[in-house]
Amino acid sequence: MNNSEVQKIAEKSNSWPFVEARNLRDRLKQIGSKSGEENEPPVLFETGYGPSGLPHIGTFGEVARTNIVRFAFQTLTGKNTKLICFSDDMDGFRKVPENVPNKTLLENYIDHPLTNVPDPFGKFDSFGAHNNSKLKEFLDRFSFEYEFISATNCYKSGKFNNALKKILLHYEDIKNVILPTLGEERKKTYSPFLPVCPKSGKVLQVNITSIDNKNNTVSYFDEDSKTTVTVSILGGACKLQWKCDWAMRWLALGVDYEMSGKDLSESVILSSKILRILGFSPPSGFSYELFLDNNGEKISKSKGNGLSIEEWLRYGTAESLSLFMFTNPKRAKRLFFDIIPKTTDEYFSHLKKYNEQTDDEKINNPVWHIHKGLPKINDLPVTYTLLLNLASVCHANDTDTVWGYVSSYASDIKRTDEIEELINLAVNFYKEMIEPQKKYRLPSDKEKKGITELIEILSTLDKETSSDEIQSIIFSIGKKLDYKNLRDWFKGLYETVLGQPEGPRMGSFIKLYGIETTKELLEKVLEGELVKE
What we know:
51% of the residues lie in helices and 9% in strands. It is mainly alpha-helical. The two termini are 57 Å apart.
C-alpha cells in the first residue's frame, strides 16, 4: 500500500488510534495551529510521570499507547511529531514507598522536592534522579523516540517563567475554579503557588497572604518565625499545585495531545478550565481505564503491586506486552502473571492472520500499530501455551529438553532466536509459576476407563496422525463415558496428566509431545506414579 491508500483506509477506520488521530487533527484545524506552514513546529505529544516511586508497567502503558496514537496521526496527516516524557520531579515527597530500601533515611525528607530527596538505592544524586533514570532505561529498551524533560530543570532554568507570570495574573480566577472542589479545611490554605521554604527546603502548602504581579512574588506567614516571608514565583522558588501545574505545562511546552488514567478525569477537566482562563485550548486526549492487581486493586508506584516490566519480560515477549497495552484501553484489566501466556499467543495469532488479510483488515490488526505498519513475518508451528505445557510435562529445566520435542514435531523448523526466546520464556514461567503449584490427583474410575481406551487407540496410530484427528478421538471417548459436560472430561485429563486445572488443546499437545511418550505418561497416571512423584 502507498501512503495515499493507507490514509484513505485510516479515514474510515474504527481502530481507536485512528479515532484519536482524527480527533487531534480536527482540533488543530479548529484552533488554526500547526496548519501546514513551511517551518511549522512538530505536533507535540506528552506523557507525564510522577517519580514519587519506581516506574511501573502502567507508566509504560501510557507511553506505548501515546506512541501508537502518534504513529497513527503521522500516517493520517504526514505531519512531523514529537514525544516528550515529562517528569514532575519537583513535586513534594509525600510518603515513603513500600518497595524501596533505607526507608528511615527517606522519612526525614517528607515534603522536600523529589530531586532533593536522597536516593535510597545509593546510586544517584536524588530519589527523583534515580526514578527518572529507571523511566528512561525502560523507554530506551523499547526504542521509543522521545525527549525527556524534568520539571526541576524547567522551573529552575526559567523555562516556565512566562507561563508562571500568566498564572499569577489570573490568580483569583484560577482559585475560583479549584476552591469548589476542596474540603473546608483545605480551602483555607489553598493557593495555586507552593513556595519552597528558603530555610527548610520543603514545598509548602500554606495560605498565601498577598501577591505582587509587578515583582512576581507571593507572601505567606511563617508560623516558626512569626514573620511574613516573600518569595519569587520564578526560577524554582515556587512550585505550582498539581492541577494548575498541568495546565501551565501544557501552555509552556505547547502540548497538543496527552492521555491520562481514569483516576485523573476530574484533574483533566479542571486543568482544561485553567488553560482556557489563560486564553488557550486544552490538548486532545482520552481517559484510559486503570490496571488492577490480582486482588482487583489499582496498581501503584508506592505499593509496587501488580506486575513490573521486568517480570512481564521474564515470562512473555515485548510484543505481547505492547499488545496488552493496545487492546481495549478503555476497559479495566487485571494485570497479573496468568495473562502473559494468553496474551503472547494472541500476539502470534494476530501476526499469523496479518498476511491473509485485506488492506482494510491489516490496518485494524493490532500488529500493524505495534510494528508501525511493518509487522515481521512469522508462522511458528507451536503456541506459547503448548510449549508451556510441554515444559510442564517433561519437567524442563532448560530449553534443550523442550527443543528436542519441538524439532521432532516439526522437523523442518530452525532453532531461530525467536523460537529460542519463546521456549526460554516458557521454561521460566513453568519453573517459577507452575511447578510450585502443581498438584496431581489420581483418576476416578470413569477417568481410568477413558484413559485406558485412549492408550489403546493411541497404540493404533502412527506419526502421520494429525492433531485434529487425535482431538476428535479424545472427544469421542468423552462422549462414550456419558459426561454431561465434556469440559469435565478434559479437566480430569489436565488434573491427572498435567497436575493443573487448565491446559492446552489435548490433540495438539499429544501431537507435539509424541504418541509413544504420551502413552507412557498415561500409563504412569493409571499406576499413580505422578501422584507419588
